Amino acid sequence: MRNQRWQIISAQVFINLIWASAFPGIRVSLEAFSPQHLVLLRLIIGSLLLLGVALLKGIKLPDAKDIPALIGLGGLGFTSYHLLLSIGEKTVSAGIASLLVSTTPILSALLAFILVRERIGKMKWLGSCISIIGISLISFTSGSVSASMIGISLILLAALSESMYFVFQVKLLKKYGFLSFVTYTVWGGALLMLFFSPGIGSDLQHAPKDSLLSVLYLGIIPTIIPYLILAYITAKMGASEATSSLYMTPVFTFVISWLWIYEVPTFLSIVGGIITLLGIACTHLPQKTRSIRDGEYIISKRNI
């Protein structure tokens, strides 16, 4: 039992590291690729990898009546999320982007409250207010406030899009199971991104080796691998345990960004980040009210 517990902890740390590395990886890739082409390549690579997994696991095609909904969810959780995040990261640092995305569980709870009248406990309300204060501080940490505000707004929209993916996924997630559902929605997201395929050949031809390797890494590792590990942890311990440590991803992102792309956070961004993380941590504290579909949400990110 102890060995299994250490395996779970190791897997959780590994997931955090992988998703954390995606944010600086995006910054590196954007040096040679447009956000549209970067997302298209990520989802094509991820789709091909999942095709292999689907053949290996014997995943069947979804029912025809569910295909439009699965494509729509793929558009929310993968197309819109990755596109808005990548555009936002042109003016927002990797660490701050990770902090903003980590508010997804809070946005999911608020959306569920608004759309389906899910009750929210006092700690979630408190955590939401604290996180808003932290994000407000973060908004004033970069040199160009106007550019950073646009980027921050886009990344918050990305988090909102991902939140909608979680709120509306419940029925189909129950029907198809975790791995099949993720496979279908990644394919749906990739299908929608084909609209941006013109000009991608030129980007690939002129991209430096570092950017090409970064895109390949993003497509294989952060886009797909964490979901496979989450499937393993969920099968062993349940979804709540599987996602309980993911709010620590921004901490890893700041460290990796400093080591990889030499991003040094400002004092104000550190203070804002700590306040934001405190708010997110509050939403994970035990409370009497039922959490927002605790066992049914597969929390962000990743998708990164």
TrEMBL record:
One of its GO terms (cellular component) is membrane. Keywords: Membrane, Transmembrane, Transmembrane helix. It comes from the Bacteria. It is found in: Endomembrane system. Pfam families: EamA. This is EamA domain-containing protein. Residues 15-139, 149-282 form the EamA domain. The chain crosses the membrane at residues 7-26, 38-56, 68-88, 94-116, 123-141, 147-166, 178-200, 212-233, 245-261, 267-285. Belongs to the EamA transporter family.
